[in-house]
Structures are given as C-alpha cells and as structure tokens.
Amino acid sequence: MQPVNADNESWPPLPLEEWQDTFATLHMWTQIVGKVRLARAAMLNHWWQTPFYVTPRGLTTSSIPCGDVSFEISFDFLDHRLRIQTLSVLSNRRNAMRATNA
C-alpha cells in the first residue's frame, strides 16, 4: 500500500470552473438543512449539534428531535435526492435536488 500524497493520481482533477453550479447548489441546500438542524436541536458547546456526517451515499444530519418524534435529513449524492426520514415508513419523503441559478 502506497502512502497518500498530493502527487497521487488516484484522485480526479476537480477544476472549480467545471462544477461551480453544483458547488453553489450544494452550498445552498446544506445551508437550509443546517438551519433546520440548528433550529430543532438543543444547543451544545461549539455548535456540536449541527454537523453533517459522511455516509456511503453522501451526508446526513443524524436524528433531529421534533416533538415526540425525530427525523433525519440525508443528502443522497448517488440518486441526487434529499431524503427526510422518520421512524414511520409512511412519512418518509424523497425530494429531487435540482440545480438553481445562484
């Protein structure tokens, strides 16, 4: 196994000019979801209640309390979806993430 370094060619080039719209859209969506999490979760030192967690498919908030239930918001980068899930299968929602002009 070779050590990972800046010269390793296993990572594809990511010139910002080619994905600027994706960057702006993802930034906006994460800001919105982050504000939901900020509003619903109890405050912890240094904003520890607000991070996103990396998953095999994208990012997630983990459980967010909402009254007697909790929900989770996940960015599914493979299916290009924003998923809002609760313990109830019937209430799970899937919303397509679409580019916007930022």
Considering the chains and any ligands shown, give keywords for the structure.
six-stranded antiparallel sheet, 102 residues, alpha+beta, globular
Could you characterize what this model shows?
It is a single chain. The chain is an alpha+beta fold and 102 residues long. The chain has a domain at 45-102. It has one helix at residues 16-40; strands at 53-54, 58-60, 64-66, 69-76, 81-86, 93-96. Strands 1, 2, 3, 4, 5 and 6 form a six-stranded antiparallel beta sheet that branches. A hairpin with a 2-residue loop joins strand 3 and strand 4 (69-76).
Question: Summarize this, please?
Answer:
This protein has 102 residues and is α+β, with helices and mostly antiparallel strands. The chain has one helix spanning 16-40, and strands spanning 53-54, 58-60, 64-66, 69-76, 81-86, 93-96.
Topology, pairings included?
Elements: H1 16-40, E1 53-54, E2 58-60, E3 64-66, E4 69-76, E5 81-86, E6 93-96
Order of helices and strands: HEEEEEE
Total helices: the number is 1
Rg over CA atoms, rounded to whole Å, is 17 Å
State which percent range the strand residues make up: 25-35%
Average pLDDT number: 82
List segments where confidence is low: pLDDT < 50 over at least 5 consecutive residues. none
Tell the overall outline. Answer: globular
Biggest sheet statistics: 6 strands, antiparallel
Beta strands, count: 6
Give helix % range: 10-25%
Structural class based on helices, strands and sheet pairing: alpha+beta
Terminal Cα span: 42 Å
